[in-house]
Protein backbone atom coordinates (compact mmCIF):
# COMPACT_ATOMS: atom_id res chain seq x y z
CA UNK A 1 0.00 0.00 0.00
CA UNK A 2 1.51 3.39 -0.90
CA UNK A 3 1.65 6.10 1.76
CA UNK A 4 -0.98 8.28 0.02
CA UNK A 5 -3.43 5.39 0.06
CA UNK A 6 -2.65 4.50 3.67
CA UNK A 7 -3.18 8.15 4.71
CA UNK A 8 -6.59 8.18 3.10
CA UNK A 9 -7.65 4.81 4.41
CA UNK A 10 -9.82 4.84 7.50
CA UNK A 11 -7.88 3.47 10.48
CA UNK A 12 -9.91 2.03 13.36
CA UNK A 13 -8.37 0.69 16.56
CA UNK A 14 -10.26 -1.98 18.52
CA UNK A 15 -9.67 -2.46 22.23
CA UNK A 16 -11.40 -5.56 23.64
CA UNK A 17 -12.00 -6.52 27.28
CA UNK A 18 -10.43 -9.85 28.23
CA UNK A 19 -13.33 -12.25 28.62
CA UNK A 20 -14.48 -14.51 25.75
CA UNK A 21 -18.02 -13.11 25.73
CA UNK A 22 -16.60 -9.63 25.12
CA UNK A 23 -13.54 -10.44 23.00
CA UNK A 24 -14.96 -12.94 20.53
CA UNK A 25 -17.65 -10.65 19.08
CA UNK A 26 -15.34 -7.63 19.03
CA UNK A 27 -12.67 -9.51 17.10
CA UNK A 28 -15.35 -10.75 14.68
CA UNK A 29 -16.48 -7.14 14.24
CA UNK A 30 -12.92 -5.91 13.70
CA UNK A 31 -12.51 -8.54 10.97
CA UNK A 32 -15.71 -7.31 9.31
CA UNK A 33 -14.38 -3.75 9.28
CA UNK A 34 -11.18 -4.98 7.61
CA UNK A 35 -13.18 -6.94 5.05
CA UNK A 36 -14.92 -3.66 4.20
CA UNK A 37 -11.67 -1.89 3.41
CA UNK A 38 -10.83 -0.40 6.80
CA UNK A 39 -7.29 -0.50 8.17
CA UNK A 40 -7.75 -2.29 11.51
CA UNK A 41 -5.51 -2.62 14.57
CA UNK A 42 -6.58 -4.75 17.54
CA UNK A 43 -4.75 -3.92 20.78
CA UNK A 44 -4.53 -6.84 23.19
CA UNK A 45 -2.20 -8.85 25.41
CA UNK A 46 -0.13 -11.87 24.35
CA UNK A 47 -2.22 -14.66 25.85
CA UNK A 48 -5.43 -13.14 24.53
CA UNK A 49 -4.04 -12.62 21.04
CA UNK A 50 -3.10 -16.29 20.85
CA UNK A 51 -6.82 -17.20 20.93
CA UNK A 52 -7.58 -15.43 17.64
CA UNK A 53 -4.28 -14.60 15.91
CA UNK A 54 -4.65 -17.40 13.36
CA UNK A 55 -7.78 -15.75 11.91
CA UNK A 56 -6.11 -12.35 11.79
CA UNK A 57 -3.07 -13.79 9.98
CA UNK A 58 -5.33 -15.53 7.52
CA UNK A 59 -7.29 -12.32 6.83
CA UNK A 60 -4.03 -10.41 6.44
CA UNK A 61 -2.69 -13.02 4.02
CA UNK A 62 -5.91 -12.69 2.03
CA UNK A 63 -5.07 -9.02 1.50
CA UNK A 64 -7.00 -7.32 4.28
CA UNK A 65 -5.37 -4.59 6.29
CA UNK A 66 -5.60 -6.00 9.81
CA UNK A 67 -3.05 -6.55 12.57
CA UNK A 68 -2.72 -7.15 16.28
CA UNK A 69 -0.67 -4.80 18.43
CA UNK A 70 0.55 -6.54 21.57
CA UNK A 71 0.85 -5.15 25.04
CA UNK A 72 2.20 -6.79 28.19
CA UNK A 73 -0.47 -7.63 30.80
CA UNK A 74 0.78 -6.75 34.32
CA UNK A 75 -0.19 -10.19 35.72
CA UNK A 76 2.27 -10.30 38.62
CA UNK A 77 1.58 -6.68 39.60
CA UNK A 78 -2.10 -7.44 40.08
CA UNK A 79 -1.42 -10.76 41.82
CA UNK A 80 -2.18 -13.16 38.97
CA UNK A 81 0.09 -15.95 37.69
CA UNK A 82 2.01 -15.30 34.48
CA UNK A 83 -0.08 -15.86 31.35
CA UNK A 84 -3.39 -15.40 33.17
CA UNK A 85 -4.83 -12.48 31.25
CA UNK A 86 -8.46 -13.45 30.67
CA UNK A 87 -11.32 -13.82 33.13
CA UNK A 88 -11.97 -17.31 31.74
CA UNK A 89 -8.52 -18.50 32.84
CA UNK A 90 -8.65 -17.12 36.34
CA UNK A 91 -9.47 -19.57 39.10
CA UNK A 92 -12.71 -18.31 40.65
CA UNK A 93 -12.91 -16.12 37.55
CA UNK A 94 -16.25 -14.54 38.25
CA UNK A 95 -15.63 -13.74 41.90
CA UNK A 96 -15.59 -9.98 42.50
CA UNK A 97 -12.00 -10.24 43.76
CA UNK A 98 -10.67 -11.93 40.63
CA UNK A 99 -12.70 -9.76 38.28
CA UNK A 100 -11.20 -6.84 40.18
CA UNK A 101 -7.68 -8.08 39.40
CA UNK A 102 -8.34 -8.27 35.66
CA UNK A 103 -10.01 -4.85 35.70
CA UNK A 104 -7.12 -3.42 37.70
CA UNK A 105 -4.70 -4.86 35.15
CA UNK A 106 -6.64 -3.21 32.33
CA UNK A 107 -6.59 0.09 34.20
CA UNK A 108 -2.81 -0.18 34.66
CA UNK A 109 -2.51 -0.45 30.88
CA UNK A 110 -4.05 2.96 30.37
CA UNK A 111 -0.77 4.88 29.97
CA UNK A 112 0.95 2.46 27.58
CA UNK A 113 -2.23 2.11 25.53
CA UNK A 114 -2.58 5.89 25.31
CA UNK A 115 1.00 6.03 24.00
CA UNK A 116 -0.01 3.45 21.39
CA UNK A 117 -3.03 5.55 20.41
CA UNK A 118 -0.71 8.55 19.95
CA UNK A 119 1.63 6.51 17.75
CA UNK A 120 -1.13 4.90 15.72
CA UNK A 121 -3.16 8.10 15.24
CA UNK A 122 -6.39 6.19 14.51
CA UNK A 123 -9.53 7.83 13.11
CA UNK A 124 -11.80 6.05 15.59
CA UNK A 125 -11.53 3.91 18.73
CA UNK A 126 -13.94 1.00 19.14
CA UNK A 127 -13.63 -0.02 22.75
CA UNK A 128 -15.34 -2.40 25.09
CA UNK A 129 -17.88 -0.64 27.33
CA UNK A 130 -15.89 -1.90 30.35
CA UNK A 131 -12.94 0.38 29.49
CA UNK A 132 -14.47 3.80 30.26
CA UNK A 133 -11.26 5.85 30.26
CA UNK A 134 -11.01 5.49 26.49
CA UNK A 135 -13.62 8.24 26.22
CA UNK A 136 -10.89 10.65 27.34
CA UNK A 137 -8.29 9.05 25.05
CA UNK A 138 -10.58 9.63 22.08
CA UNK A 139 -11.26 13.21 23.16
CA UNK A 140 -7.50 13.91 23.31
CA UNK A 141 -7.17 12.72 19.72
CA UNK A 142 -10.40 14.50 18.65
CA UNK A 143 -11.77 11.27 17.24
CA UNK A 144 -15.02 9.39 17.87
CA UNK A 145 -15.23 6.69 20.52
CA UNK A 146 -17.66 3.88 19.83
CA UNK A 147 -18.37 1.53 22.70
CA UNK A 148 -19.11 -2.10 22.19
CA UNK A 149 -20.98 -4.51 24.37
CA UNK A 150 -22.28 -7.67 22.89
CA UNK A 151 -25.75 -7.83 24.34
CA UNK A 152 -29.32 -7.36 23.23
CA UNK A 153 -31.06 -4.03 22.75
CA UNK A 154 -33.75 -5.55 24.92
CA UNK A 155 -31.43 -6.05 27.89
CA UNK A 156 -29.90 -2.60 27.49
CA UNK A 157 -33.36 -0.98 27.45
CA UNK A 158 -34.64 -3.07 30.37
CA UNK A 159 -31.54 -2.39 32.44
CA UNK A 160 -31.75 1.34 31.69
CA UNK A 161 -35.39 1.68 32.79
CA UNK A 162 -34.93 -0.51 35.86
CA UNK A 163 -32.02 1.67 36.99
CA UNK A 164 -33.89 4.85 36.16
CA UNK A 165 -37.28 4.09 37.74
CA UNK A 166 -36.36 1.38 40.28
CA UNK A 167 -39.67 -0.52 40.00
CA UNK A 168 -38.16 -3.17 42.31
CA UNK A 169 -38.00 -0.89 45.32
CA UNK A 170 -40.72 -1.22 47.97
CA UNK A 171 -41.96 -4.68 47.00
CA UNK A 172 -43.20 -6.99 49.70
CA UNK A 173 -40.75 -9.75 48.80
CA UNK A 174 -37.77 -10.58 46.61
CA UNK A 175 -39.91 -12.93 44.55
CA UNK A 176 -42.84 -10.57 43.98
CA UNK A 177 -43.13 -9.70 40.30
CA UNK A 178 -42.85 -6.14 39.00
CA UNK A 179 -43.31 -4.79 35.48
CA UNK A 180 -40.40 -3.05 33.78
CA UNK A 181 -41.58 0.45 32.80
CA UNK A 182 -41.46 2.03 29.32
CA UNK A 183 -40.97 -1.18 27.32
CA UNK A 184 -43.13 -2.04 24.28
CA UNK A 185 -44.14 -5.38 25.88
CA UNK A 186 -45.33 -6.26 29.39
CA UNK A 187 -42.24 -7.74 30.94
CA UNK A 188 -42.30 -9.04 34.49
CA UNK A 189 -39.38 -9.93 36.69
CA UNK A 190 -38.56 -10.32 40.36
CA UNK A 191 -35.93 -8.53 42.44
CA UNK A 192 -34.01 -11.78 42.78
CA UNK A 193 -33.46 -11.86 39.04
CA UNK A 194 -31.73 -8.49 39.01
CA UNK A 195 -28.01 -8.04 39.52
CA UNK A 196 -27.09 -7.54 43.18
CA UNK A 197 -25.73 -4.04 42.51
CA UNK A 198 -29.04 -3.02 40.95
CA UNK A 199 -31.08 -4.55 43.77
CA UNK A 200 -29.15 -2.54 46.35
CA UNK A 201 -26.29 -0.10 46.04
CA UNK A 202 -22.88 -1.70 46.68
CA UNK A 203 -19.24 -1.43 45.54
CA UNK A 204 -20.13 -2.74 42.07
CA UNK A 205 -22.69 0.06 41.64
CA UNK A 206 -19.87 2.59 41.95
CA UNK A 207 -17.73 0.51 39.56
CA UNK A 208 -20.39 0.74 36.84
CA UNK A 209 -21.08 4.47 37.23
CA UNK A 210 -18.09 5.69 35.12
CA UNK A 211 -18.97 3.06 32.54
CA UNK A 212 -22.47 4.49 32.08
CA UNK A 213 -21.10 8.03 32.14
CA UNK A 214 -18.59 7.19 29.40
CA UNK A 215 -21.40 5.77 27.28
CA UNK A 216 -23.29 9.05 27.46
CA UNK A 217 -20.15 10.90 26.33
CA UNK A 218 -19.42 8.55 23.42
CA UNK A 219 -20.17 9.02 19.74
CA UNK A 220 -22.35 5.92 19.72
CA UNK A 221 -22.40 2.16 20.02
CA UNK A 222 -22.01 -0.85 17.79
CA UNK A 223 -24.62 -3.53 18.56
CA UNK A 224 -24.25 -7.20 17.88
CA UNK A 225 -27.93 -7.60 17.08
CA UNK A 226 -30.08 -7.18 14.01
CA UNK A 227 -33.09 -5.10 13.06
CA UNK A 228 -35.40 -8.01 12.23
CA UNK A 229 -34.84 -9.56 15.66
CA UNK A 230 -35.66 -6.71 18.02
CA UNK A 231 -36.62 -3.64 16.01
CA UNK A 232 -38.96 -2.38 18.79
CA UNK A 233 -36.08 -2.24 21.23
CA UNK A 234 -33.63 -0.88 18.69
CA UNK A 235 -36.12 1.98 18.29
CA UNK A 236 -36.54 2.59 22.04
CA UNK A 237 -32.77 2.65 22.43
CA UNK A 238 -32.36 5.17 19.62
CA UNK A 239 -35.31 7.41 20.44
CA UNK A 240 -36.32 7.33 24.12
CA UNK A 241 -32.80 6.58 25.35
CA UNK A 242 -31.18 8.73 22.65
CA UNK A 243 -28.31 6.39 21.85
CA UNK A 244 -26.78 6.50 18.39
CA UNK A 245 -26.28 2.88 17.38
CA UNK A 246 -25.49 0.61 14.48
CA UNK A 247 -26.82 -2.96 14.50
CA UNK A 248 -24.31 -5.08 12.62
CA UNK A 249 -25.03 -8.59 13.90
CA UNK A 250 -24.95 -11.45 14.01
CA UNK A 251 -21.21 -10.88 13.71
CA UNK A 252 -20.21 -14.49 14.42
CA UNK A 253 -22.15 -15.77 11.40
CA UNK A 254 -20.94 -12.95 9.23
CA UNK A 255 -17.24 -12.93 10.09
CA UNK A 256 -16.86 -16.72 10.17
CA UNK A 257 -18.77 -17.48 6.97
CA UNK A 258 -17.01 -20.40 5.32
CA UNK A 259 -14.09 -20.21 7.77
CA UNK A 260 -12.74 -23.63 8.65
CA UNK A 261 -11.11 -22.18 11.79
CA UNK A 262 -14.47 -21.48 13.38
CA UNK A 263 -14.12 -24.78 15.31
CA UNK A 264 -11.58 -23.36 17.74
CA UNK A 265 -12.67 -19.75 17.67
CA UNK A 266 -11.84 -18.06 20.97
CA UNK A 267 -9.54 -20.85 22.12
CA UNK A 268 -5.87 -21.66 21.71
CA UNK A 269 -5.89 -25.42 21.43
CA UNK A 270 -7.38 -27.19 18.49
CA UNK A 271 -7.73 -30.93 18.73
CA UNK A 272 -8.39 -32.20 15.22
CA UNK A 273 -8.87 -35.78 16.37
CA UNK A 274 -11.45 -34.82 19.01
CA UNK A 275 -13.26 -32.56 16.56
CA UNK A 276 -13.51 -35.39 14.03
CA UNK A 277 -14.83 -37.75 16.72
CA UNK A 278 -17.46 -35.20 17.72
CA UNK A 279 -18.56 -34.64 14.12
CA UNK A 280 -18.77 -38.40 13.55
CA UNK A 281 -20.98 -38.69 16.60
CA UNK A 282 -23.21 -35.86 15.36
CA UNK A 283 -23.30 -37.37 11.85
CA UNK A 284 -24.65 -40.59 13.36
CA UNK A 285 -27.67 -38.78 14.80
CA UNK A 286 -30.98 -37.88 13.20
CA UNK A 287 -31.57 -34.29 12.17
CA UNK A 288 -32.63 -31.99 15.01
CA UNK A 289 -32.43 -34.74 17.62
CA UNK A 290 -29.53 -33.48 19.76
CA UNK A 291 -29.74 -31.03 22.64
CA UNK A 292 -26.58 -28.94 23.10
CA UNK A 293 -26.03 -27.97 26.73
CA UNK A 294 -23.60 -25.15 27.46
CA UNK A 295 -23.39 -22.36 29.98
CA UNK A 296 -20.90 -20.11 28.22
CA UNK A 297 -17.25 -19.48 28.91
CA UNK A 298 -17.27 -18.63 32.62
CA UNK A 299 -19.86 -20.60 34.53
CA UNK A 300 -18.69 -23.57 36.57
CA UNK A 301 -21.49 -25.35 38.38
CA UNK A 302 -21.27 -26.91 41.78
CA UNK A 303 -21.42 -30.66 42.08
CA UNK A 304 -25.02 -31.12 43.22
CA UNK A 305 -26.23 -29.08 40.24
CA UNK A 306 -24.12 -31.13 37.83
CA UNK A 307 -25.72 -34.29 39.25
CA UNK A 308 -29.19 -32.83 38.62
CA UNK A 309 -28.30 -31.93 35.03
CA UNK A 310 -26.89 -35.41 34.38
CA UNK A 311 -30.05 -37.09 35.67
CA UNK A 312 -32.30 -34.58 33.94
CA UNK A 313 -30.65 -35.23 30.57
CA UNK A 314 -30.83 -38.98 31.02
CA UNK A 315 -34.44 -38.73 32.12
CA UNK A 316 -35.35 -36.70 29.03
CA UNK A 317 -34.34 -39.59 26.78
CA UNK A 318 -32.96 -37.18 24.16
CA UNK A 319 -29.48 -37.20 22.63
CA UNK A 320 -27.26 -34.52 24.09
CA UNK A 321 -23.87 -32.86 24.00
CA UNK A 322 -22.94 -31.36 27.35
CA UNK A 323 -20.01 -29.00 27.90
CA UNK A 324 -18.77 -29.49 31.46
CA UNK A 325 -16.52 -26.96 33.08
CA UNK A 326 -15.85 -28.30 36.54
CA UNK A 327 -16.02 -26.15 39.59
CA UNK A 328 -12.46 -26.31 40.87
CA UNK A 329 -13.62 -26.90 44.42
CA UNK A 330 -15.17 -30.26 43.56
CA UNK A 331 -12.14 -32.13 42.28
CA UNK A 332 -12.70 -35.14 44.53
CA UNK A 333 -16.21 -35.63 43.22
CA UNK A 334 -15.12 -36.24 39.65
CA UNK A 335 -15.99 -39.94 39.93
CA UNK A 336 -19.69 -39.29 39.38
CA UNK A 337 -19.15 -37.45 36.11
CA UNK A 338 -16.66 -40.00 34.83
CA UNK A 339 -19.14 -42.84 35.51
CA UNK A 340 -21.84 -40.79 33.83
CA UNK A 341 -19.64 -40.21 30.80
CA UNK A 342 -18.93 -43.96 30.51
CA UNK A 343 -22.62 -44.75 30.81
CA UNK A 344 -23.82 -42.32 28.14
CA UNK A 345 -20.98 -43.37 25.83
CA UNK A 346 -22.18 -46.95 26.11
CA UNK A 347 -25.81 -46.03 25.43
CA UNK A 348 -24.58 -43.64 22.70
CA UNK A 349 -27.08 -41.08 24.02
CA UNK A 350 -24.70 -38.41 25.18
CA UNK A 351 -21.38 -36.77 24.46
CA UNK A 352 -19.46 -34.91 27.14
CA UNK A 353 -17.03 -32.15 26.18
CA UNK A 354 -14.65 -31.02 28.90
CA UNK A 355 -14.02 -27.30 29.25
CA UNK A 356 -14.32 -25.82 25.76
CA UNK A 357 -16.55 -26.81 22.84
CA UNK A 358 -16.32 -25.88 19.17
CA UNK A 359 -19.68 -24.19 19.62
CA UNK A 360 -20.25 -22.82 16.12
CA UNK A 361 -19.56 -26.24 14.58
CA UNK A 362 -22.06 -27.92 16.90
CA UNK A 363 -24.76 -25.31 16.42
CA UNK A 364 -24.33 -25.46 12.65
CA UNK A 365 -24.73 -29.22 12.49
CA UNK A 366 -28.13 -30.46 11.22
CA UNK A 367 -28.34 -33.02 14.06
CA UNK A 368 -28.52 -30.23 16.64
CA UNK A 369 -32.13 -29.45 17.47
CA UNK A 370 -31.93 -27.09 20.42
CA UNK A 371 -29.73 -25.64 23.11
CA UNK A 372 -29.79 -25.31 26.86
CA UNK A 373 -28.22 -21.92 27.41
CA UNK A 374 -27.37 -19.53 30.23
CA UNK A 375 -28.64 -16.77 27.90
CA UNK A 376 -25.25 -15.15 27.44
CA UNK A 377 -25.89 -12.92 24.45
CA UNK A 378 -23.31 -14.45 22.14
CA UNK A 379 -24.57 -18.00 22.63
CA UNK A 380 -28.13 -16.74 22.31
CA UNK A 381 -27.43 -14.96 19.05
CA UNK A 382 -25.34 -17.82 17.68
CA UNK A 383 -28.31 -20.16 18.30
CA UNK A 384 -30.81 -17.73 16.78
CA UNK A 385 -28.57 -17.38 13.72
CA UNK A 386 -28.94 -21.08 12.96
CA UNK A 387 -32.65 -21.14 13.78
CA UNK A 388 -32.47 -23.09 17.05
CA UNK A 389 -34.95 -22.74 19.93
CA UNK A 390 -33.58 -22.60 23.46
CA UNK A 391 -34.10 -23.81 26.99
CA UNK A 392 -33.32 -20.71 28.99
CA UNK A 393 -31.31 -21.04 32.18
CA UNK A 394 -29.95 -17.61 33.06
CA UNK A 395 -27.32 -17.38 35.77
CA UNK A 396 -25.89 -13.88 36.18
CA UNK A 397 -25.30 -10.42 34.64
CA UNK A 398 -27.98 -9.41 32.10
CA UNK A 399 -28.90 -13.01 31.29
CA UNK A 400 -32.30 -12.86 33.03
CA UNK A 401 -33.29 -10.00 30.70
CA UNK A 402 -32.23 -12.04 27.67
CA UNK A 403 -34.40 -14.87 28.97
CA UNK A 404 -37.44 -12.59 28.92
CA UNK A 405 -36.65 -11.54 25.35
CA UNK A 406 -36.50 -15.19 24.26
CA UNK A 407 -39.55 -16.35 26.21
CA UNK A 408 -41.96 -13.38 26.20
CA UNK A 409 -41.06 -11.42 23.08
CA UNK A 410 -39.55 -13.79 20.51
CA UNK A 411 -41.31 -16.86 21.91
CA UNK A 412 -38.49 -19.22 21.05
CA UNK A 413 -37.41 -20.06 24.60
CA UNK A 414 -38.61 -22.52 27.25
CA UNK A 415 -37.67 -21.37 30.76
CA UNK A 416 -36.16 -24.02 33.02
CA UNK A 417 -37.19 -22.04 36.08
CA UNK A 418 -34.01 -20.23 37.23
CA UNK A 419 -34.94 -17.84 40.00
CA UNK A 420 -31.89 -16.03 41.22
CA UNK A 421 -29.19 -13.87 39.62
CA UNK A 422 -26.00 -15.19 41.18
CA UNK A 423 -22.41 -15.79 40.24
CA UNK A 424 -21.67 -19.50 40.00
CA UNK A 425 -19.42 -19.48 43.04
CA UNK A 426 -22.27 -18.32 45.26
CA UNK A 427 -24.94 -20.78 44.15
CA UNK A 428 -27.00 -22.41 46.84
CA UNK A 429 -28.86 -25.70 46.93
CA UNK A 430 -32.13 -23.75 47.29
CA UNK A 431 -31.52 -22.02 43.94
CA UNK A 432 -30.78 -25.33 42.23
CA UNK A 433 -32.74 -26.41 39.14
CA UNK A 434 -34.08 -29.96 39.60
CA UNK A 435 -33.78 -32.87 37.18
CA UNK A 436 -37.56 -33.01 36.61
CA UNK A 437 -37.57 -29.38 35.45
CA UNK A 438 -34.70 -30.05 33.04
CA UNK A 439 -36.35 -33.14 31.56
CA UNK A 440 -39.68 -31.31 31.26
CA UNK A 441 -38.15 -28.34 29.43
CA UNK A 442 -36.32 -30.72 27.05
CA UNK A 443 -39.60 -32.44 26.29
CA UNK A 444 -41.27 -29.14 25.42
CA UNK A 445 -38.34 -27.97 23.30
CA UNK A 446 -37.85 -31.12 21.22
CA UNK A 447 -41.29 -32.71 21.61
CA UNK A 448 -44.05 -33.21 19.05
CA UNK A 449 -46.75 -30.97 20.54
CA UNK A 450 -48.23 -28.22 18.36
CA UNK A 451 -46.71 -25.46 20.53
CA UNK A 452 -43.26 -27.05 20.29
CA UNK A 453 -43.49 -27.29 16.53
CA UNK A 454 -44.61 -23.68 16.23
CA UNK A 455 -41.77 -22.52 18.43
CA UNK A 456 -39.26 -24.35 16.25
CA UNK A 457 -40.80 -22.81 13.13
CA UNK A 458 -40.48 -19.33 14.66
CA UNK A 459 -36.86 -19.99 15.54
CA UNK A 460 -36.14 -21.06 11.95
CA UNK A 461 -37.66 -17.83 10.64
CA UNK A 462 -35.29 -15.80 12.81
CA UNK A 463 -32.44 -17.95 11.51
CA UNK A 464 -33.44 -17.08 7.93
CA UNK A 465 -33.67 -13.39 8.81
CA UNK A 466 -30.22 -13.55 10.43
CA UNK A 467 -28.76 -14.91 7.21
CA UNK A 468 -30.46 -12.28 5.05
CA UNK A 469 -29.53 -9.29 7.19
CA UNK A 470 -25.78 -9.82 6.64
CA UNK A 471 -26.10 -10.26 2.87
CA UNK A 472 -25.45 -7.29 0.59
CA UNK A 473 -28.49 -4.99 0.87
CA UNK A 474 -29.57 -6.47 4.24
CA UNK A 475 -30.06 -4.24 7.30
CA UNK A 476 -26.89 -5.21 9.15
CA UNK A 477 -24.84 -5.08 5.97
CA UNK A 478 -26.11 -1.60 5.17
CA UNK A 479 -25.57 -0.42 8.75
CA UNK A 480 -21.93 -1.44 8.67
CA UNK A 481 -21.39 0.30 5.33
CA UNK A 482 -23.16 3.43 6.61
CA UNK A 483 -21.10 3.49 9.79
CA UNK A 484 -17.85 3.19 7.86
CA UNK A 485 -18.98 5.97 5.49
CA UNK A 486 -19.86 8.20 8.44
CA UNK A 487 -16.46 7.60 10.04
CA UNK A 488 -14.81 8.45 6.71
CA UNK A 489 -16.72 11.76 6.56
CA UNK A 490 -15.63 12.58 10.10
CA UNK A 491 -12.03 11.86 9.15
CA UNK A 492 -12.35 14.17 6.16
CA UNK A 493 -13.91 17.00 8.21
CA UNK A 494 -11.19 16.66 10.83
CA UNK A 495 -8.47 16.85 8.16
CA UNK A 496 -10.10 19.95 6.63
CA UNK A 497 -10.39 21.56 10.08
CA UNK A 498 -6.72 20.89 10.79
CA UNK A 499 -5.73 22.36 7.41
CA UNK A 500 -7.78 25.50 8.08
CA UNK A 501 -6.04 25.92 11.50
N1 LIG B 1 -17.82 -20.52 23.60
C1 LIG B 1 -17.30 -21.54 22.84
N2 LIG B 1 -17.10 -22.75 23.45
C2 LIG B 1 -17.40 -22.98 24.76
C3 LIG B 1 -17.94 -21.90 25.52
C4 LIG B 1 -18.14 -20.69 24.90
O1 LIG B 1 -17.02 -21.38 21.64
O2 LIG B 1 -17.20 -24.08 25.24
C5 LIG B 1 -18.03 -19.19 22.96
C6 LIG B 1 -19.48 -19.03 22.54
O3 LIG B 1 -19.67 -19.50 21.23
C7 LIG B 1 -19.67 -17.52 22.68
C8 LIG B 1 -18.74 -17.13 23.83
O4 LIG B 1 -17.79 -18.18 23.92
O5 LIG B 1 -19.23 -16.87 21.51
C9 LIG B 1 -19.47 -17.03 25.15
O6 LIG B 1 -20.18 -15.85 25.20
P1 LIG B 1 -21.63 -15.75 25.87
O7 LIG B 1 -22.08 -14.36 25.73
O8 LIG B 1 -22.52 -16.79 25.33
O9 LIG B 1 -21.42 -16.13 27.40
P2 LIG B 1 -20.31 -15.73 28.51
O10 LIG B 1 -19.19 -16.67 28.32
O11 LIG B 1 -19.94 -14.31 28.27
O12 LIG B 1 -21.03 -15.97 29.80
UniProtKB/TrEMBL annotation:
Residues 9-251 form the Glycosyltransferase N-terminal domain. The keyword Transferase applies. Its EC number is 2.4.1.272. InterPro entries: Glyco_transf_N, UDP_glucos_trans. One of its GO terms (molecular function) is soyasapogenol B glucuronide galactosyltransferase activity. It is an enzyme of class 2 (transferase). SUPFAM superfamilies: UDP-Glycosyltransferase/glycogen phosphorylase. Belongs to the UDP-glycosyltransferase family. This is Putative soyasapogenol B glucuronide galactosyltransferase. It comes from Medicago truncatula. The lineage of its organism: Eukaryota, Viridiplantae, Streptophyta, Embryophyta, Tracheophyta.
Amino acid sequence: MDSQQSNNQLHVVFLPYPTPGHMIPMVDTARLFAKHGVNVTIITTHANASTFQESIDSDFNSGYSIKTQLIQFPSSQVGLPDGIENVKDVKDGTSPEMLGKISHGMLMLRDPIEVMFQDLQPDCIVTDMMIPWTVESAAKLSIPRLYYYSSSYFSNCACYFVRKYRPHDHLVSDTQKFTIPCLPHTIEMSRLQLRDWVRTTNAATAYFEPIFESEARSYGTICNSFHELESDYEKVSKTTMGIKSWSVGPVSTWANKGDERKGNRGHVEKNVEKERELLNWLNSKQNESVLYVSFGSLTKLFHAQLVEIAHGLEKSGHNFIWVVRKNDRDENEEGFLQDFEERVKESNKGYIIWNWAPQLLILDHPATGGIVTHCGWNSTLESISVGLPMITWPMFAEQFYNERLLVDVLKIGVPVGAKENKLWNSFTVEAMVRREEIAKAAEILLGNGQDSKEMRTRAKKFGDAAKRTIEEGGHSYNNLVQLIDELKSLKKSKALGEKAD
